[in-house]
Specification:
Blueprint: H1 5-11, H2 17-25, E1 36-45, E2 48-52, E3 59-62, H3 74-77, E4 83-90, E5 99-101, H4 103-119, E6 124-132, E7 135-140, E8 143-148, E9 165-174, E10 179-183, H5 184-195, E11 201-210, E12 213-217, E13 222-226, E14 247-256, E15 261-265, H6 275-278, H7 280-285, H8 287-306
Parallel strand pairs: 13-15
Antiparallel strand pairs: 1-2, 1-4, 2-3, 4-5, 6-7, 6-9, 7-8, 9-10, 11-12, 11-14, 12-13, 14-15
Length: 312
């Protein structure tokens, strides 16, 4: 046998199971807890699925770790042979098998999203899942959140809220303490504020009197009618014009959603300085016509400035 023929015969020698095992031993299949790996589901079990991650043994993902949401159909949640990322939550056992999770990856992303939405003051939809003495428990993309009773619009019959979807804003995000606190009341207030327009005439109710002005309830929102915005004349005493629970009409002058502040005015409704002091009820009764007149005057001024006369 020549030296040249020997490699050919060796090349045709079958690759035994023992040889394969030895080859595997030479590979590095260390999977550590917290590591992100890619793999494909290739077999289902009653309580989970086996995943090929390229290791000595197939990895396993328990059913409870498939998603942060309730999984009713494992095949839909984890299609066969679809490659995706998994988180290693338990390192290799004696057989080389590791345990995987998608749920914990989703929960981490959810906490990151909550922190980002809080920074940007964004609202989120949540589903009420239960109640306790202090408020309601909600599901927020797999996270457990809480809305205190004081931050609900419906504060009496909390059981009626179970199953409902509420729009909320975030009050507190504490990942380390697993604490997520939200407000339905503030989100609704912000929504109503966004529908207000500067210059609009709105109905309100006097909520409180202060030396510097009047707080007016605008149907769940409170605006400030500063004493200097009530009349073009000096106001000697607010108590002579206003009382708690009184219906009034006011003009929205400024809306600051970030500071939850609404500024109001009445003095533009006056035909002359001090008219509100003399004929308050009359000014209120025909406030709509007065605002229409103001808008017409403003339109005329805009047209005049856009089409100046030849003399000018």
């Amino acid at each position: 046998m020549t030296a040249q023929s020997r490699p050919d015969r060796e090349a045709n020698t079958p690759f035994s199971a023992e040889d394969f095992a030895k080859a595997l031993e030479g590979q590095d299949y260390n999977f550590d807890k917290g590591q992100i790996v890619r793999g494909k589901v290739f077999e289902y079990e009653t309580n989970g699925a086996y995943v090929d991650v390229g290791g000595k043994s197939p990895a396993f993902i328990p059913l409870r770790e498939v998603s942060a949401q309730l999984v009713t159909n494992l095949e839909e949640a984890l299609p066969l042979n679809e490659e995706r990322e998994f988180l290693v939550i338990r390192g290799q056992d004696a057989d080389g098998q590791v345990t995987l999770s998608i749920r914990q990856m989703e929960i981490k992303r959810a906490w990151d999203e909550m922190a980002e939405r809080q920074d940007e003051n964004q609202s989120i939809e949540v589903r009420v899942t239960g109640t306790n003495r202090g408020g309601v428990v909600v599901d927020v993309g797999g996270l457990r959140g809480f809305i205190p009773r004081s931050h609900l619009l419906e504060r009496e019959d909390l059981d009626s809220l179970v199953g409902q979807v509420l729009v909320t804003t975030i009050l507190e995000v504490d990942r380390d303490r697993n604490k997520l606190v939200l407000s339905h009341r503030l989100a609704e207030r912000a929504s109503r504020m966004s529908r207000l327009l500067p210059g609009a005439l709105v109905d309100g109710t006097v909520a409180n009197l202060k030396p510097y002005g009047v707080f007016v309830d605008l149907g769940g929102m409170t605006g400030l009618l500063h004493i200097k915005q009530i009349s073009k004349a000096r106001i000697p005493n607010l108590d002579d014009l206003f009382h708690q629970g009184q219906s009034v009409k006011v003009i929205v002058t400024e809306i600051d959603e970030w500071k939850n502040r609404i500024s109001l005015s009445m003095k533009e409704l006056e035909s002359y300085p001090g008219e509100l002091l003399d004929r308050f009820d009359e000014v209120m009764s025909n406030a709509e016509q007065r605002v229409s007149g103001l808008n017409a005057e403003a339109d005329t001024e805009i047209q005049s400035s856009a089409n100046p006369s030849e003399e000018e």
